[in-house]
Amino acid sequence: MVFLKRMTSIILLISLILLPVACSNSNAELQKIRLAEVTRSIFYAPLYAAISEGFFEEEGIDLELTTTWGGDTTMTTLLSDGADVALVGAETSIYVYAQGANDPAVNFAALTQTDGTFLVSREKMDSFEWEDLRDTTFLGQRVGGMPQMVGEHVLKKHGINPHQDLELIQSIDFGNIPSAFASGTGDFVQLFEPQATQFENEGIGYIVASFGEESALVPYTGFMSKESFIKENTETLEAFTRALYKGQQWVEEQSSDVIAESIATFFEDADVELIAQVVDRYQSQGSYATDPLLTEEAWIQLQVIMDAAGELPKEVDFRELVNTSIAESVLD
Fold this sequence. Notes:
Elements: H1 2-17, H2 27-30, E1 32-37, H3 45-52, H4 55-58, E2 62-67, H5 71-79, E3 85-88, H6 91-98, E4 105-112, E5 117-121, E6 137-139, H7 146-157, E7 167-169, H8 177-182, E8 188-192, H9 195-202, E9 206-210, H10 211-214, E10 221-226, H11 227-232, H12 234-253, H13 256-263, H14 272-284, H15 296-308, H16 318-321, H17 325-331
Helix pairs in contact: 1-5, 3-12, 12-17, 13-14
């Protein structure tokens, strides 16, 4: 449990350095939200649409967005008061809670509701079967993260033991996985967008399956804050979530081309046509949550997947780490 060990060290360090500090912000200052996102991804289109379409300003929120690149870094930023809200996988809140955090990270709004990765083959395959993975080299994601856990869950669902029936490579850093595949490593690779579609467009690889379609609904990426921050800033987080919900509804109603134009400034290295292709793919498989409410069913499924991967440190009740009152107030 590599990720859990890293989080243990991080939490111990923070507990030695920081003392609980009461919130002393004025009402004006409370309208500013510092948001740390785990990565920059078209997978998060409703958030970027809410920003570009002005929904946060409409709700009186001054949103400061920072990309912190990685689950452990994002959680460190949140726990050390470097951010008010973190956009990250819900599994990280369980890792932190399991270490006995006295101010745990609590999930209050959902953004994505499926896995966001795709299975890409080096060779074009007219009729892919999961059995085709047997005895091949599979370039997977890092141990302890949701992509890896969902990937293993799906393979096992189709009768493939990822640690026995194929050569599983998990030693490559997340950011270098696409280039490793492009340079010749692996017969198959588990990729996020836009790399998957870009590789297909360039003939480097071919999308043969979607891990999002193969796994049940799961709170893959969402918004969390420290429990103390939620208690002291409920109205501000309600405004934040109303803006998010507007973005979710807007993305649900618009075409992929319109959405791509709206969020293009967040992806300066990708052309609008590629962004539209990716948005369309995610829309068609229902990856974007259409409202911010995180359900108990999805929370249970998350822990089933974590447990099957050997990464669940302890079972955590839904009510311990999920606050539904904020999303419910927005939906009323």
